[in-house]
Every structure is written in structure tokens, then in C-alpha cells.
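Cross-posting from the chemistry board since nobody answered there.

I work mostly on the small-molecule side, so proteins are not my area. We synthesized pyridoxal-5'-phosphate and want a rough idea of how it might sit in this target. Sequence and SMILES are below. Is it possible to get a predicted 3D structure of the two together?
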Amino acid sequence: MTPSTELQRPVIKTSLPGPKSLEIINADAQYVTPSYPRPDYKLVADHASGVWITDPDGNVFLDCNAGVAVCSTGHCHPEVVAAIQKQVSELIHLCGTDFYYRHMPELGKKLNEICPIEGPTKTHFANSGAEAIETALKLAMYHTKRQKFISFFGSFHGRTLGALSLTSSKKAQRLGFLRQALDVVHIPYPNKFRHFVTDQPVDEATITRDCINWIEKKLFQTTTPPEEVAGIVLEVVQGEGGYIPAPKAFVKELRRICDEHGIMLIIDEVQSGMGRTGKMFALDHHEGVKADIMCLAKGLGSGMPIGACVARADIMDWHKGAHASTFGGNPVALTAALKTIELLEGGLVDNSRDVGAYLEAGLNKLKDKYDCIGDVRGLGMMLGVEFVRLDGSIAPELRDIVEMACFNRGLIILGCGSNSIRFSPPLILAKEHVDVALEIFDEAIAASI
Ligand SMILES: Cc1ncc(COP(=O)(O)O)c(C=O)c1O
């Protein structure tokens, strides 16, 4: 399953960033927007294969981030590359919003088969996660004839103005943009490691009850009458907010609330979907709970830009011309997605579950070893490690130092939330890679405290 590779360990042979990388970083500073949220360390990619990234100076890094949970099948998986190359030689673009080609119904049919949505589905194709979210918001407003949305603190749904109205994981994402475009109210996310009032760990039943009460006993009784709510937008595992899974009882309760009030349950699986959690979708861990609308992107195309909004067919009842996009559903991106799903179903989802459990066990050993690790959590290959001070308060500076120490040793990981590190490797990661990653992570923490 893992593409064969001779290389067993990262190779760092220059100071980082090396001289050729620095040239690119300097040119970037001159010509590219400064708004990108890049981390303190500076990785420049020249080429990549499987779980290995090579920079222009010949340094080789072990990738436990997958281009922020995108390269699900690993970098340049040979079967994905071959499928893309064949498609590029046959049809690059035609504009599926005005004309037809086989790839749209093929992928729509496949998504209908695999998405945890009750009954038949239809799909609107987009180019990114934010666009898939925009589609979901417009669709929910159109279908319910309502305008309000409920989102969660810590959530990330994208940076276009509609999606940004939902997003609340960092101040920097909002600062300077003044009012939000949509009528969105934010509520606490059920993080059992940090209760939203006490900042202390609590059991799942308590955090579930407190968050649900907030909706039913506060919001619905005051600012946000349920009959005016078009949708509740949930990341089943909060991604940018810190890789925090929602308790099963909470997700079930949200479904009940949506059913009682005719509210759309919009599940954002942009980061958690496509095998990342050890099942095809994070919602698949919640037996019996189905979404009304789902948003996908990132891992769907193994790196090709694609987003999808999948909805119950009876909800996707909007008129001709209501929503479309020139590039959305481009045949090359759709080909990559079809091949990606084939590979996921052919073993990579299982690998995510099994090797993810192995990685989680190793991270938990490090939690026992180091007081500065407060929590290890997640599902499959979507694992978060939270760094804390001795009194349990958050340790963002230490997290950043560890991140840099990993980079200097050739391990690519990325922060999430205020004080966590995420492991979101390509789903082809093997146990031998995990051993190397854990050894480097261990060394990096030891050198940072
Ligand atoms: C859960 C979630 N939703 C939406 C988005 C936005 O996706 P994109 O950056 O492709 O617009 C992201 C991106 O990180 C995400 O993690």
C-alpha cells in the first residue's frame, strides 16, 4: 500500500532554510500577499513523493501534515498522477455549469453512495472548502426561507465573507473586516478537555448537557428563535480549533434539535472527511446520525482543487441559475477525486484507522512521559496534542518552540488551536514512519522544555 521508498529517515544537510530556499522565501516576501498564516518555520517544497518532501537544497522531510490534510493518498501517488495525466490529455475544461461530461454524475453517484446522508443526494461542485460552505449556506437559506445560522467558537469554515461569518478559531481571521456578512451566532464547542466556563476537564455528559442547554435554554429563548434558524454548522472533529472530537451524545442531540425545528444540520467534513478519521467520514463514527448537507474539499482530490456540497436531493430544490461556478467540478479535479476515493476504499481508510491508532498510542506514551502534554485526542490520522503549563493552562509558546524543533529535525507538523499540534499525515503513513516521527517528536519536546 505504501509506495516503496528506500528512504527511512529525514535528511537535513544545510542550515534551515537553506540558501536556495531562502531565495524563494525572499522573492515571496516581495511579490506575494503577506496575509497567509504561515508558521514560524519556513518549509519550501521542491518535490514530494509518498510521505517525503524534498526542499530545493536537497533536505528531505517526513510529512505528518499532508499539505494541511489534503494529500490523503500521499504526495504524487502514482495512480493519481496517471489518472490526472490521462485526463489532461483528453479534456481539461468545458464548464460543467453549462455543458455536460461524465465525471460530474460519476462523482455525484459515488458521493451519494458514501456520504452519511439519509436518502438520495445531489452534489454541487466547487473549488475549495470555503466555496462548498458558501454553497451550503445559500442552499440552507433558500430551502428553509430562513436567515440565521448557529456556529461554534473555535470553528473554521473558510475565509470568504459568508464562510468567515461562521469562522471563529482565531482573532486574526476576523480582525479588520468589521461586521459579519451573515446573521450567525456562536456557541461553545463541546470540548471536554476545557469546559467553556471553568477551563477544566469534564466528562462528556456534562459538556454535552451544558452546550445543548446553551442552545435550547438560552439562544432559542432569547436572540435566536429556532423557527428563524436555517442551519447549524458543525465540524464533528473541530480542525483548526484544535483537533477536538465532539461527544457522540452531543452530535445526536444536535440532530434531535434540527429535526424538532426544521433546521438543516450542515456537517463540515472539509478537514475530517475522506478517511482522515479512520472511517470515510467523521460522522460515520456517530451511528444513526445523518447530515442534511455535507461540505467536502481538502483530501477529496489528493491535492487537486475541489470542493463539494452534498445534500439530500429534496433539499437541493433551488431553481436553475441559483448557484454555479465556472471551474467547480473541473474534469481533472473530478478524476483525481474518483481515483482518490477508489484508493481510500481500497485500503487507505483502514490504514488511517490502524496506523492512526498506533500513532495515538505512541503519543499517549509521550503524554505519560511529559507533563507539558495535557491532552492527546482525535480519531484515526486526525490527532491533536495539547501543550500545557504545570497548572494546566495553555502553553502556546512551548507549542511553537516544539513545532520549530520538529522542523529542524526534519519532521513536518503544524499547530492548531491556541496551543496544540496536529498530526494529519498522508493516509499511506506506515508504522515505520510513525516510529521515526515519534522519535523526532520526543527529541523535539525534550530539547524545548
Ligand atoms: C473544516 C474546514 N472547513 C472549511 C475550510 C476552508 O477550506 P478552504 O481553505 O479550501 O477554503 C477548512 C480549511 O482549513 C476547514 O478546515
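Reply from a structural biologist on the board:
Welcome over. Reading the output above for you: Residues 128-130, 133, 156-158, 235, 239-240, 268, 270-271, 297 surround pyridoxal-5'-phosphate (CB under 6 Å). The domain at 19-74+348-448 is CATH 3.90.1150.10 (Aspartate Aminotransferase, domain 1). Happy to explain the C-alpha cell format if needed.
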